[in-house]
Structure formats: structure tokens, C-alpha cells
Amino acid sequence: MCPPAHFDVKYAINPQMKAALERGVRVDKNRAFLQWMRLAFLLQTFGVEVRYILSPKKTPDMVFAANAGFPFNGRVAISHFRHTERRKEEPYFARFFRKQLGMRAKDVIASHAFHPEFFEGKGDVLWHEDTLVCGYGLRSTRKGIEAVLEAVGYTGKRVFLELVDERFYHLDTCLCLSGKYILWYPPAFRPEAWKVVSDLVPPGGFSIIVSEEDALEFACNGIFLENGGKKHLITRPVSPRLRGTLQDLGITVHENDVSEFLKAAGGNQCLVLFLN
Known about the structure:
Strand order of the largest sheet: 1-2-3
Strand content: 15-25%
CATH class: Alpha Beta
Number of helices: 8
CATH superfamily: L-arginine/glycine Amidinotransferase, Chain A
Oligomer: single chain
CATH topology: L-arginine/glycine Amidinotransferase, Chain A
């Protein structure tokens, strides 16, 4: 996780940021820090060990650590961002992985002739049991993802889903996976992807389709955790209907309001890069 010391909305690389700038919306930095701290605390109460990377000035989006790269088997492929505004983050993430975590960090795309391919970390690559679910089309490119998986030595199962709604620019903004359960917003995907997602639901599992209202509140940008054999979901405040559906499935909802980060189109999952 990266503390929000320099978090702000200084440029627009998605519709939500554009709207915030046009309306003159400002980030309440004290409130943002408290929201971020509560997420870190929640994770630690579930036994998650949190490591922190500090951001330099002029990297307002580095707080969204999920986009740093893709860690796998002691290696990590560093992201190469589509937008130049975020490319300043790349060397800092690489240095942190190498120096602080002792991981073999590879600049797979930025240091090779893969342009104009892009890869934006675990925002677009999610684990679902033994399968990698990969999102492309708005930020990461399919070839960029394939190059990264090859570089870190991943040869396992994978599926690709094309994203088509700029409001849901990363896969983790519209899809949340947890073994039996899939929480998602179908209109964010090309229709051909709908069956692929449905096929990911295991026997006895459940596909939870969220409303546009909940989707825009980044309900799908949540973090599923298990504790004592029970399912928990950390996410933004959700509608009573969605909360009821989750509770009926035995999922305990922990609402963590990250409204300051939503101004930059970020939710709870955006703020965390899981290393295992």
C-alpha cells in the first residue's frame, strides 16, 4: 500500500477525473488519509501483513498500488502505463520491489520493443482459483498482458475479457472474484465476454450482478477475504438490495468509505497490491 501523501486530482485520465476537474471538486486530503488508514487497519485485523511504499511528489495516483505490477513466484513484472502521467511511478515501484522486497523486478514492456503495448498490473489481472482472468482494451493491451505472463513464467490457465466502458477502465473496477462468488457489472464488458464470466462460476457458486448505481460507487472494486471459514467483503457503501443479497449468501460486508479516492475513480481494491 502507498500512503496518500501526494494524492490529488491533477489531470484527467478517466471520465470521473474529468468530471471532478470540470466541477472544481477538490480532494480533502485529511479525509483521504483517514479513509486509507481505515482500509489498512481492516486488512490487518484479518491478518494481512501490510508493507508500505512512499510516493514522491508529482505522482498523485501512485496511491493506487494495485496497478504497480504483477507479482508471481518471486518475480514481478512492472507495469507500463498507457497514460504518460502515471509512468513516473514505474521506476519507484521497480526499486521498491527489488530493494525492499527482494523480488526480481522486470520492466517487461517499457524496456523492450513492445510499444504501443501496455500493462497496468493487478488492476487488469485477477486470480480466480487456478485461472488468471485478464482484462484488456482500455488500459492494458492483450499483447501487453501476454508478454508479462511469459516474462514471469506463468504458463497456466487464463481467460481474456474485453472492457468497453471508460468509466470502468480496469478489470478490478467491474469484477470481483472469490471462488464460489463473482460480483460484476456486465455492461462494462463486450457482450462476448458475458458467457466467459458466467462459465467461471463453479457448481454451487453464484453470479452477483450489480446495478449501475452500485457499479458507479465501485462496489465491484472490493476485497474478498476469508476468516474462520467465513467470507468477508471490504467495499464501498452499497445499496440495501446488494447488501441483502451478499448477506443472504453468507458474506459479511465491511463498508469502507473511500469517497475521496472515488473522485479519481478508485476504490478499496485499487489501493492494495496483494503479493501472494
